[in-house]
From TrEMBL:
SUPFAM superfamilies: Nucleic acid-binding proteins
Phylogenetic classification of the source organism: Bacteria, Pseudomonadati, Pseudomonadota, Gammaproteobacteria, Aeromonadales
Domain S1 motif as annotated: residue spans: 39-128
Source organism (scientific name): Oceanimonas pelagia
GO biological process: rRNA processing; tRNA processing
Protein name per the record: Ribonuclease G
CDD domains in UniProt: S1_RNase_E
Length: 489
Protein backbone atom coordinates (compact mmCIF):
# COMPACT_ATOMS: atom_id res chain seq x y z
CA UNK A 1 0.00 0.00 0.00
CA UNK A 2 1.32 3.45 -0.93
CA UNK A 3 0.85 6.31 1.53
CA UNK A 4 1.99 9.91 1.62
CA UNK A 5 1.47 13.07 3.60
CA UNK A 6 0.65 16.29 1.74
CA UNK A 7 1.28 19.49 3.71
CA UNK A 8 -0.16 22.84 2.62
CA UNK A 9 1.22 25.90 4.43
CA UNK A 10 -0.12 29.47 4.52
CA UNK A 11 0.62 32.18 7.11
CA UNK A 12 -2.82 31.70 8.69
CA UNK A 13 -3.35 27.96 8.30
CA UNK A 14 -1.62 24.59 8.10
CA UNK A 15 -3.38 21.64 6.44
CA UNK A 16 -2.13 18.07 6.32
CA UNK A 17 -3.71 15.30 4.24
CA UNK A 18 -2.99 11.59 4.50
CA UNK A 19 -3.49 9.84 1.16
CA UNK A 20 -3.45 6.04 0.94
CA UNK A 21 -3.50 4.35 -2.47
CA UNK A 22 -4.51 7.66 -4.04
CA UNK A 23 -7.54 8.11 -1.73
CA UNK A 24 -7.80 10.78 0.94
CA UNK A 25 -8.12 9.19 4.40
CA UNK A 26 -7.41 11.93 6.93
CA UNK A 27 -7.33 15.73 7.03
CA UNK A 28 -5.77 17.75 9.85
CA UNK A 29 -6.19 21.53 10.02
CA UNK A 30 -4.56 24.00 12.38
CA UNK A 31 -5.29 27.71 12.20
CA UNK A 32 -2.79 30.12 13.68
CA UNK A 33 -5.48 32.08 15.50
CA UNK A 34 -7.08 28.90 16.91
CA UNK A 35 -4.26 26.44 17.45
CA UNK A 36 -5.23 23.26 19.26
CA UNK A 37 -3.89 22.98 22.79
CA UNK A 38 -3.93 19.20 23.33
CA UNK A 39 -0.63 18.18 24.88
CA UNK A 40 0.17 21.66 26.21
CA UNK A 41 1.19 21.94 29.86
CA UNK A 42 0.05 24.87 32.01
CA UNK A 43 0.53 26.30 35.46
CA UNK A 44 -3.15 26.76 36.19
CA UNK A 45 -5.10 28.19 39.09
CA UNK A 46 -8.14 26.41 40.52
CA UNK A 47 -10.99 28.90 40.10
CA UNK A 48 -13.84 26.79 41.44
CA UNK A 49 -14.32 23.42 43.15
CA UNK A 50 -17.58 21.54 42.56
CA UNK A 51 -17.96 18.66 45.07
CA UNK A 52 -21.32 17.69 43.58
CA UNK A 53 -19.68 17.03 40.20
CA UNK A 54 -16.42 15.74 41.69
CA UNK A 55 -14.63 18.25 39.48
CA UNK A 56 -12.92 21.63 39.46
CA UNK A 57 -12.61 24.47 36.97
CA UNK A 58 -9.05 25.60 36.33
CA UNK A 59 -7.96 28.90 34.79
CA UNK A 60 -5.16 28.23 32.31
CA UNK A 61 -5.28 31.67 30.70
CA UNK A 62 -7.84 30.90 27.98
CA UNK A 63 -11.27 32.37 27.26
CA UNK A 64 -13.04 29.59 29.18
CA UNK A 65 -12.02 27.80 32.33
CA UNK A 66 -10.84 24.23 31.74
CA UNK A 67 -12.39 21.16 33.37
CA UNK A 68 -10.52 18.84 35.74
CA UNK A 69 -12.35 15.75 37.03
CA UNK A 70 -11.31 13.96 40.21
CA UNK A 71 -10.57 10.80 38.21
CA UNK A 72 -7.96 12.74 36.19
CA UNK A 73 -5.96 13.67 39.29
CA UNK A 74 -3.22 11.21 40.21
CA UNK A 75 -1.79 11.02 43.75
CA UNK A 76 1.88 11.17 42.75
CA UNK A 77 1.52 14.69 41.30
CA UNK A 78 2.16 17.93 43.13
CA UNK A 79 -1.55 18.70 43.46
CA UNK A 80 -1.59 16.34 46.43
CA UNK A 81 0.76 17.81 49.01
CA UNK A 82 3.23 15.28 50.46
CA UNK A 83 2.02 16.24 53.95
CA UNK A 84 -1.49 15.31 52.90
CA UNK A 85 -0.67 11.93 51.28
CA UNK A 86 -2.00 10.07 54.29
CA UNK A 87 -5.35 11.87 53.93
CA UNK A 88 -5.57 11.40 50.18
CA UNK A 89 -8.91 9.97 49.13
CA UNK A 90 -9.12 8.96 45.49
CA UNK A 91 -12.19 10.41 43.84
CA UNK A 92 -12.92 13.05 46.48
CA UNK A 93 -12.30 16.38 44.75
CA UNK A 94 -12.44 18.34 48.04
CA UNK A 95 -9.45 16.32 49.30
CA UNK A 96 -7.49 16.85 46.10
CA UNK A 97 -7.64 20.56 45.24
CA UNK A 98 -8.73 23.82 46.79
CA UNK A 99 -9.87 27.11 45.30
CA UNK A 100 -6.99 29.46 44.47
CA UNK A 101 -4.43 26.67 44.36
CA UNK A 102 -1.75 26.62 41.65
CA UNK A 103 -1.65 23.31 39.83
CA UNK A 104 0.31 21.92 36.88
CA UNK A 105 -2.01 20.36 34.31
CA UNK A 106 -1.93 19.02 30.76
CA UNK A 107 -4.69 19.35 28.16
CA UNK A 108 -6.10 16.02 26.96
CA UNK A 109 -9.08 17.38 25.00
CA UNK A 110 -9.45 20.65 23.13
CA UNK A 111 -12.42 22.91 23.92
CA UNK A 112 -15.39 21.51 21.99
CA UNK A 113 -18.45 23.67 21.35
CA UNK A 114 -19.42 25.31 24.63
CA UNK A 115 -17.25 22.97 26.70
CA UNK A 116 -13.88 24.02 28.02
CA UNK A 117 -10.70 21.98 27.62
CA UNK A 118 -10.36 18.71 29.56
CA UNK A 119 -7.33 18.49 31.84
CA UNK A 120 -5.27 15.91 33.70
CA UNK A 121 -2.49 16.13 36.26
CA UNK A 122 -0.99 12.92 34.87
CA UNK A 123 1.60 14.63 32.68
CA UNK A 124 3.08 12.74 29.71
CA UNK A 125 5.77 13.86 27.26
CA UNK A 126 6.05 11.99 23.94
CA UNK A 127 9.15 11.64 21.81
CA UNK A 128 10.30 9.43 18.95
CA UNK A 129 10.37 6.10 20.78
CA UNK A 130 9.16 6.83 24.32
CA UNK A 131 6.47 8.57 26.32
CA UNK A 132 7.83 9.97 29.59
CA UNK A 133 5.61 9.75 32.71
CA UNK A 134 6.92 12.05 35.46
CA UNK A 135 6.60 10.72 39.00
CA UNK A 136 5.93 7.15 37.91
CA UNK A 137 8.23 4.14 38.15
CA UNK A 138 6.25 2.20 35.55
CA UNK A 139 7.54 0.83 32.24
CA UNK A 140 4.90 -0.11 29.65
CA UNK A 141 5.07 -1.37 26.08
CA UNK A 142 2.78 -0.60 23.16
CA UNK A 143 0.27 -3.40 22.55
CA UNK A 144 1.10 -3.27 18.84
CA UNK A 145 4.49 -4.85 19.53
CA UNK A 146 3.50 -8.52 19.36
CA UNK A 147 6.74 -10.35 20.05
CA UNK A 148 7.09 -11.19 23.75
CA UNK A 149 10.85 -11.46 23.33
CA UNK A 150 11.03 -7.95 21.85
CA UNK A 151 8.71 -6.57 24.54
CA UNK A 152 10.95 -8.01 27.28
CA UNK A 153 14.09 -6.64 25.61
CA UNK A 154 12.68 -3.13 25.32
CA UNK A 155 11.40 -3.23 28.89
CA UNK A 156 14.86 -4.12 30.18
CA UNK A 157 16.46 -1.31 28.20
CA UNK A 158 13.90 1.30 29.32
CA UNK A 159 14.04 0.18 32.95
CA UNK A 160 17.69 1.26 33.11
CA UNK A 161 16.57 4.88 32.67
CA UNK A 162 13.76 4.87 35.22
CA UNK A 163 14.60 6.90 38.32
CA UNK A 164 12.93 9.31 40.72
CA UNK A 165 12.05 11.59 37.79
CA UNK A 166 9.69 9.10 36.18
CA UNK A 167 9.02 6.06 33.98
CA UNK A 168 8.27 5.36 30.33
CA UNK A 169 5.85 3.86 27.87
CA UNK A 170 7.61 2.33 24.88
CA UNK A 171 6.00 3.33 21.57
CA UNK A 172 5.40 1.08 18.57
CA UNK A 173 8.17 2.82 16.63
CA UNK A 174 10.73 1.49 19.14
CA UNK A 175 10.43 -2.07 17.83
CA UNK A 176 13.88 -3.26 16.76
CA UNK A 177 15.84 -0.16 17.84
CA UNK A 178 19.13 -0.30 19.71
CA UNK A 179 20.13 0.68 23.23
CA UNK A 180 21.74 3.97 22.16
CA UNK A 181 18.63 5.34 20.43
CA UNK A 182 16.48 4.54 23.44
CA UNK A 183 18.99 6.17 25.80
CA UNK A 184 19.07 9.35 23.68
CA UNK A 185 15.29 9.60 23.75
CA UNK A 186 15.16 9.07 27.52
CA UNK A 187 17.82 11.73 28.12
CA UNK A 188 16.01 14.22 25.86
CA UNK A 189 12.70 13.74 27.68
CA UNK A 190 14.31 14.13 31.10
CA UNK A 191 16.00 17.38 30.01
CA UNK A 192 12.65 18.63 28.74
CA UNK A 193 10.95 17.74 32.01
CA UNK A 194 13.61 19.58 34.04
CA UNK A 195 13.08 22.66 31.84
CA UNK A 196 9.31 22.52 32.47
CA UNK A 197 9.86 22.27 36.23
CA UNK A 198 12.18 25.29 36.12
CA UNK A 199 9.51 27.29 34.27
CA UNK A 200 6.90 26.23 36.82
CA UNK A 201 8.96 27.86 39.57
CA UNK A 202 9.52 31.08 37.59
CA UNK A 203 6.29 31.63 35.65
CA UNK A 204 3.14 33.21 37.16
CA UNK A 205 -0.21 31.43 37.45
CA UNK A 206 -2.23 30.77 34.25
CA UNK A 207 0.95 30.46 32.17
CA UNK A 208 1.88 27.91 29.52
CA UNK A 209 4.91 25.86 30.53
CA UNK A 210 5.18 23.66 27.45
CA UNK A 211 3.61 23.84 23.99
CA UNK A 212 3.18 20.76 21.85
CA UNK A 213 4.71 20.77 18.39
CA UNK A 214 3.07 22.61 15.52
CA UNK A 215 0.79 20.49 13.35
CA UNK A 216 3.24 19.63 10.56
CA UNK A 217 5.89 18.42 13.03
CA UNK A 218 3.35 16.71 15.31
CA UNK A 219 1.86 14.74 12.42
CA UNK A 220 5.29 13.55 11.28
CA UNK A 221 6.11 12.51 14.85
CA UNK A 222 2.79 10.70 15.31
CA UNK A 223 3.01 8.92 11.97
CA UNK A 224 6.28 7.33 12.91
CA UNK A 225 6.01 3.61 12.20
CA UNK A 226 3.48 4.16 9.42
CA UNK A 227 4.57 3.12 5.94
CA UNK A 228 4.98 6.57 4.40
CA UNK A 229 6.45 6.72 0.91
CA UNK A 230 6.97 10.47 0.96
CA UNK A 231 6.02 13.74 2.59
CA UNK A 232 5.37 16.65 0.22
CA UNK A 233 5.39 20.25 1.48
CA UNK A 234 4.57 23.39 -0.50
CA UNK A 235 6.62 25.71 1.77
CA UNK A 236 10.41 25.72 1.40
CA UNK A 237 10.88 27.12 4.92
CA UNK A 238 8.72 24.43 6.50
CA UNK A 239 10.32 21.77 4.30
CA UNK A 240 13.80 22.72 5.53
CA UNK A 241 12.62 22.81 9.15
CA UNK A 242 10.97 19.40 8.77
CA UNK A 243 14.15 17.93 7.31
CA UNK A 244 16.12 19.17 10.32
CA UNK A 245 13.47 17.80 12.69
CA UNK A 246 13.37 14.43 10.91
CA UNK A 247 17.16 14.08 10.84
CA UNK A 248 17.22 14.50 14.62
CA UNK A 249 14.12 12.61 15.70
CA UNK A 250 12.91 10.40 12.83
CA UNK A 251 16.02 9.52 10.79
CA UNK A 252 14.29 6.71 8.86
CA UNK A 253 12.11 9.35 7.17
CA UNK A 254 15.12 11.32 5.99
CA UNK A 255 15.12 11.57 2.22
CA UNK A 256 11.35 11.20 1.97
CA UNK A 257 10.54 14.88 2.47
CA UNK A 258 10.07 16.75 -0.80
CA UNK A 259 9.52 20.41 -1.58
CA UNK A 260 6.53 20.67 -3.93
CA UNK A 261 7.09 23.18 -6.73
CA UNK A 262 4.19 22.29 -9.03
CA UNK A 263 2.07 24.98 -10.68
CA UNK A 264 -1.22 23.55 -9.38
CA UNK A 265 -2.06 23.96 -5.66
CA UNK A 266 -0.74 20.98 -3.73
CA UNK A 267 -4.20 20.04 -2.45
CA UNK A 268 -5.41 19.66 -6.01
CA UNK A 269 -3.32 16.49 -6.07
CA UNK A 270 -5.56 13.45 -5.57
CA UNK A 271 -8.58 15.78 -5.66
CA UNK A 272 -8.10 16.61 -1.96
CA UNK A 273 -9.96 19.93 -2.05
CA UNK A 274 -13.09 18.37 -3.53
CA UNK A 275 -12.89 15.43 -1.12
CA UNK A 276 -12.88 17.88 1.81
CA UNK A 277 -15.99 19.56 0.44
CA UNK A 278 -17.71 16.19 0.06
CA UNK A 279 -16.78 15.33 3.65
CA UNK A 280 -19.04 18.16 4.82
CA UNK A 281 -22.13 16.67 3.14
CA UNK A 282 -24.68 14.60 5.04
CA UNK A 283 -25.01 12.12 2.20
CA UNK A 284 -22.20 9.78 1.19
CA UNK A 285 -22.72 7.87 -2.03
CA UNK A 286 -21.64 4.22 -2.26
CA UNK A 287 -20.35 2.76 -5.52
CA UNK A 288 -23.18 0.22 -5.63
CA UNK A 289 -25.85 2.92 -5.60
CA UNK A 290 -26.54 2.80 -1.88
CA UNK A 291 -25.69 5.69 0.43
CA UNK A 292 -24.97 6.79 4.01
CA UNK A 293 -26.60 9.65 5.91
CA UNK A 294 -24.30 11.07 8.59
CA UNK A 295 -25.69 13.42 11.24
CA UNK A 296 -23.36 14.93 13.81
CA UNK A 297 -24.74 16.35 17.06
CA UNK A 298 -23.08 17.44 20.29
CA UNK A 299 -24.18 14.24 22.05
CA UNK A 300 -23.41 11.66 19.35
CA UNK A 301 -23.08 10.91 15.65
CA UNK A 302 -25.63 8.77 13.82
CA UNK A 303 -25.01 6.92 10.55
CA UNK A 304 -27.90 5.49 8.55
CA UNK A 305 -27.35 3.06 5.66
CA UNK A 306 -29.77 2.81 2.71
CA UNK A 307 -29.78 0.59 -0.40
CA UNK A 308 -30.77 3.52 -2.61
CA UNK A 309 -30.56 2.56 -6.28
CA UNK A 310 -28.81 -0.75 -5.55
CA UNK A 311 -31.23 -3.58 -6.42
CA UNK A 312 -28.78 -6.49 -6.32
CA UNK A 313 -28.67 -9.58 -8.49
CA UNK A 314 -30.03 -12.41 -6.33
CA UNK A 315 -32.45 -11.71 -3.50
CA UNK A 316 -33.29 -8.98 -1.01
CA UNK A 317 -31.31 -10.44 1.89
CA UNK A 318 -28.19 -10.72 -0.28
CA UNK A 319 -28.66 -7.15 -1.54
CA UNK A 320 -28.94 -5.85 2.02
CA UNK A 321 -25.89 -7.82 3.15
CA UNK A 322 -23.72 -6.57 0.27
CA UNK A 323 -24.79 -2.97 0.90
CA UNK A 324 -23.95 -3.26 4.62
CA UNK A 325 -20.54 -4.79 3.85
CA UNK A 326 -19.73 -1.96 1.44
CA UNK A 327 -20.94 0.55 4.02
CA UNK A 328 -18.45 -0.70 6.65
CA UNK A 329 -15.53 0.42 4.48
CA UNK A 330 -17.12 3.80 3.80
CA UNK A 331 -17.96 4.31 7.50
CA UNK A 332 -14.39 3.61 8.63
CA UNK A 333 -13.05 6.09 6.07
CA UNK A 334 -15.60 8.79 6.92
CA UNK A 335 -14.85 8.54 10.66
CA UNK A 336 -11.17 9.19 9.97
CA UNK A 337 -11.77 11.80 7.29
CA UNK A 338 -14.32 13.78 9.31
CA UNK A 339 -12.50 13.09 12.61
CA UNK A 340 -15.75 12.02 14.27
CA UNK A 341 -15.45 10.94 17.89
CA UNK A 342 -17.44 10.09 20.98
CA UNK A 343 -20.55 7.92 20.73
CA UNK A 344 -21.43 6.72 17.23
CA UNK A 345 -24.67 4.88 16.43
CA UNK A 346 -24.79 2.93 13.15
CA UNK A 347 -28.16 1.89 11.74
CA UNK A 348 -27.35 -0.89 9.29
CA UNK A 349 -30.14 -2.13 7.04
CA UNK A 350 -32.02 -4.86 8.96
CA UNK A 351 -30.55 -8.35 8.52
CA UNK A 352 -32.20 -11.56 9.69
CA UNK A 353 -29.29 -13.91 9.08
CA UNK A 354 -27.05 -14.10 12.19
CA UNK A 355 -24.08 -15.11 10.04
CA UNK A 356 -24.53 -11.95 7.96
CA UNK A 357 -24.56 -9.85 11.14
CA UNK A 358 -21.32 -11.46 12.36
CA UNK A 359 -19.63 -10.90 9.01
CA UNK A 360 -20.72 -7.23 8.89
CA UNK A 361 -19.35 -6.63 12.41
CA UNK A 362 -16.08 -8.35 11.49
CA UNK A 363 -15.82 -6.25 8.32
CA UNK A 364 -16.36 -3.06 10.35
CA UNK A 365 -13.74 -4.00 12.93
CA UNK A 366 -11.28 -4.91 10.18
CA UNK A 367 -11.88 -1.58 8.41
CA UNK A 368 -11.38 0.30 11.69
CA UNK A 369 -8.12 -1.49 12.47
CA UNK A 370 -6.18 1.04 10.36
CA UNK A 371 -7.57 3.92 12.42
CA UNK A 372 -4.93 5.42 14.71
CA UNK A 373 -7.67 6.64 17.07
CA UNK A 374 -8.86 4.06 19.59
CA UNK A 375 -12.23 2.54 18.67
CA UNK A 376 -14.56 0.16 20.50
CA UNK A 377 -17.37 -1.63 18.63
CA UNK A 378 -20.29 -3.35 20.38
CA UNK A 379 -22.53 -5.94 18.75
CA UNK A 380 -26.02 -5.39 17.40
CA UNK A 381 -28.49 -4.15 20.00
CA UNK A 382 -32.08 -5.39 20.34
CA UNK A 383 -33.10 -2.55 18.06
CA UNK A 384 -30.63 -3.67 15.41
CA UNK A 385 -28.23 -0.77 16.01
CA UNK A 386 -24.46 -0.99 16.35
CA UNK A 387 -23.00 1.20 19.08
CA UNK A 388 -19.37 2.19 18.95
CA UNK A 389 -17.02 4.80 20.35
CA UNK A 390 -14.03 6.55 18.84
CA UNK A 391 -11.58 8.50 20.94
CA UNK A 392 -12.06 12.22 20.49
CA UNK A 393 -9.35 14.73 21.36
CA UNK A 394 -9.71 17.43 18.70
CA UNK A 395 -12.63 19.06 16.96
CA UNK A 396 -14.22 17.35 13.98
CA UNK A 397 -13.66 18.60 10.44
CA UNK A 398 -17.16 20.10 10.40
CA UNK A 399 -16.58 22.02 13.64
CA UNK A 400 -13.27 23.38 12.33
CA UNK A 401 -14.59 24.47 8.93
CA UNK A 402 -18.24 25.32 9.60
CA UNK A 403 -20.41 27.42 11.87
CA UNK A 404 -24.08 27.41 12.77
CA UNK A 405 -26.36 28.42 9.90
CA UNK A 406 -27.41 32.07 10.43
CA UNK A 407 -30.71 31.47 8.62
CA UNK A 408 -31.89 28.57 10.76
CA UNK A 409 -29.89 29.36 13.93
CA UNK A 410 -28.01 26.10 13.75
CA UNK A 411 -31.05 23.86 13.36
CA UNK A 412 -29.77 22.75 9.93
CA UNK A 413 -33.36 23.15 8.73
CA UNK A 414 -35.14 26.15 7.20
CA UNK A 415 -38.87 26.85 7.55
CA UNK A 416 -40.82 26.25 4.37
CA UNK A 417 -42.32 29.08 2.32
CA UNK A 418 -45.78 27.89 3.38
CA UNK A 419 -44.87 27.97 7.08
CA UNK A 420 -43.47 31.50 6.87
CA UNK A 421 -46.52 32.68 4.88
CA UNK A 422 -48.87 31.49 7.63
CA UNK A 423 -46.66 33.12 10.29
CA UNK A 424 -47.05 36.43 8.44
CA UNK A 425 -50.83 36.09 8.32
CA UNK A 426 -50.92 35.39 12.07
CA UNK A 427 -48.63 38.33 12.75
CA UNK A 428 -50.96 40.67 10.82
CA UNK A 429 -53.90 39.46 12.95
CA UNK A 430 -51.90 39.99 16.16
CA UNK A 431 -50.77 43.50 15.24
CA UNK A 432 -54.25 44.46 14.08
CA UNK A 433 -55.71 43.56 17.48
CA UNK A 434 -53.02 45.42 19.39
CA UNK A 435 -52.76 48.61 17.34
CA UNK A 436 -54.96 50.88 15.23
CA UNK A 437 -53.57 50.92 11.68
CA UNK A 438 -55.09 51.94 8.35
CA UNK A 439 -53.29 49.32 6.29
CA UNK A 440 -50.31 46.92 6.42
CA UNK A 441 -47.20 46.45 4.30
CA UNK A 442 -45.38 43.11 4.41
CA UNK A 443 -41.69 42.85 3.52
CA UNK A 444 -40.55 39.24 2.89
CA UNK A 445 -38.10 37.19 0.84
CA UNK A 446 -38.81 36.84 -2.86
CA UNK A 447 -40.04 33.24 -2.49
CA UNK A 448 -42.43 34.09 0.36
CA UNK A 449 -43.68 37.29 -1.31
CA UNK A 450 -44.41 35.35 -4.50
CA UNK A 451 -46.30 32.71 -2.53
CA UNK A 452 -48.47 35.31 -0.75
CA UNK A 453 -49.36 36.90 -4.08
CA UNK A 454 -49.94 33.62 -5.93
CA UNK A 455 -50.44 30.28 -4.11
CA UNK A 456 -51.66 31.86 -0.88
CA UNK A 457 -53.40 34.88 -2.44
CA UNK A 458 -56.83 33.53 -1.51
CA UNK A 459 -55.78 33.35 2.16
CA UNK A 460 -54.47 36.91 2.01
CA UNK A 461 -57.74 38.10 0.40
CA UNK A 462 -59.80 36.41 3.12
CA UNK A 463 -57.65 38.09 5.76
CA UNK A 464 -58.18 41.54 4.20
CA UNK A 465 -61.94 40.98 4.23
CA UNK A 466 -61.82 39.76 7.85
CA UNK A 467 -59.86 42.75 9.23
CA UNK A 468 -61.33 45.26 6.74
CA UNK A 469 -57.90 46.63 5.82
CA UNK A 470 -55.56 46.48 2.84
CA UNK A 471 -52.40 44.36 2.96
CA UNK A 472 -49.64 45.07 0.44
CA UNK A 473 -46.77 42.62 -0.09
CA UNK A 474 -43.28 43.76 -1.13
CA UNK A 475 -40.42 41.48 -2.14
CA UNK A 476 -37.12 42.07 -0.32
CA UNK A 477 -34.31 40.15 -2.10
CA UNK A 478 -31.86 40.60 0.79
CA UNK A 479 -34.14 38.83 3.28
CA UNK A 480 -33.58 35.14 3.98
CA UNK A 481 -36.53 32.76 3.72
CA UNK A 482 -37.52 33.01 7.39
CA UNK A 483 -37.15 36.78 7.65
CA UNK A 484 -40.08 39.21 7.30
CA UNK A 485 -41.47 42.48 8.63
CA UNK A 486 -45.07 43.64 9.05
CA UNK A 487 -45.26 47.45 8.90
CA UNK A 488 -48.32 49.49 9.98
CA UNK A 489 -49.31 52.44 7.81
Amino acid sequence: MSAELIINMTPAETRVALVENGILQEVHIERQARRGIVGNIYKGKVSRVLPGMQAAFVDIGGERAAFLHASDIVPHTECVDTREQAHFQAGNIAELVRQGQDIMVQVVKDPLGTKGARLTTDITLPSRYLVFMPGSAYVGVSQRIDSEQERDRLKRLAAEHVDEQGGFIIRTAAEGIGEQELAQDAAFLKRLWRKIQERRGKYPSCSMLYEDLRLAFRIVRDFVGAELDRIRVDSRETCDALRTFVDEFVPELSGRIEYYQGNAPIFDLYDVENEIQRALDRKVELKSGGYLIIDQTEAMTTIDINTGAFVGHRNLEETIFNTNIEATQAIARQLRLRNLGGIIIIDFIDMYDDDHKRRVLHSLELALSRDRAKTNVNGFSQLGLVEMTRKRTRESLEHVLCDACPECNGRARVKTVETVSYEILREILRVNKAYDADKFVVYASTAVADALQEDESHMLAELEVFIGKQVRVNSEPLYNQEQFDVVMM
